[in-house]
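Batch manifest, entry 17 of 40.
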Amino acid sequence: MRVIYAVLLAAVVVARVDAFLEATDLAMVKPSANHHEVTLPTKRLLRTQETGDDEYEERAGGIPVSAVEKAKAIITPAASTEKLKTWLNSGKSLDDVFVRLKLDKAKDQILSSPQFTNWLNYADDLTSKAGKEASAIATLTTQYGDEALAKIIIAAKKIEGTKAVATRLEAEQMQSWLAAGSTADDVFKLLKLDKAGDDVLTSPLFNTWSMYMQIFNKENPAKKTTLYATLATHYSDDVLARMVESAKKVKTTAGTAKRVEATQIQSWLGRKQTPDNVFKLLKLDSAGDDVLANPALNTWATYLNTFNKENPDKKTTMIATLTANYGDEGVSRMLDAAKKVETTKSIATNLETAQIQQWLSTGKYPASIFTRLNLDKAGDDLLPSPLFTTFTKFTDAYHAKNPRVLMTTGSIVNAYYDDLSVVKMILAGDKIPSSADAAKRMEGVLFKEWMAAPRSSGYWRKTQLVFFLPVIYQREQS
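Output type: structure tokens
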């Protein structure tokens, strides 16, 4: 009996509360102002403010609603058509109806909520009744912020059931930006594309911004801007080059990326930048051994070709620019490292050939290259050094071009290392796979020179080295 009584009592209380809330609908809810304007999201602290007899509560990222409206939203069932008419007749604000329909709880799925269409229709009806726009986009922007709302719209456009309403909201969002006087650069920052880094061109929000830029330019020809100008305002040349290379690999963004790259190259040409200047702008001068794997190198190579075509009297090469920034030794080392990586092996091999040709065309002697590669300071590491292999390739090319010049690999090595040191290097290098070929080559060169030498005290000294050094070396290693 007590249980039944308790249930009946609860029913009476709920009925009285509902009657009270319905009776005070008109008195307690005040419409929010300026629905036709976009309320850009700002950082707000929790605060309460007295407005007449009502106490309103505002939170960061949400719309201002009364505590009474929140209470009604909790206990009120889904709104019927009649209820919406009642609210319309009483002039209930779009923000309040948003809460009463529990749309403030829908999060990212708001456009697929059954009540969302009712709310949009209410916005249209309220606009007709009041004679001024009740902006749905203003409420949504206040609730979500420009970036999050744009993402919701983009996602909804991909779903057949929400595509139409999402397209409508997208147009309204752009119109709200125009009405607020937002420039293309302002919207770029509202969508946080200035923080997207290398992913800007592949971001779904980039398409939204691009559409707005076109609309803005059409409406404001005196303030017309370009895609490249906006990107260049927020990103340095090297970052822009990286994002272009990244976007070129994606089918849907490849076209845009190529247009940006073309504009960037024309911008450099217009500013009369040399290939070496652009090399530094792209920070390739500080990339070290990874320069050949740097995506920005592709952009630079494209500029190099364009520059050479436009300025035949100032024509330069990739190997010349690399050498100017890294030196002969640095370039040789990076090429050796790059030849071991499949993705850079081809370009490194071609550049090695170009390096040797550059030395030949500029009249470099083998002895000069030996010191330029710091092989005169290599010590016991001479033969295992990959730079020694580069050096021998150059001497071969040099002798092929200058067959009458009496200069050998052995004579250059002997200018810095005595016979004993060289023989020790040969014996040690022969046991290391990476230097075995160099050791055998050097052994052949050394023996050939010894056999060609006149029979003198030096000759007999060398003969002793040939026969006895292996024994000496083994004794030292034991």
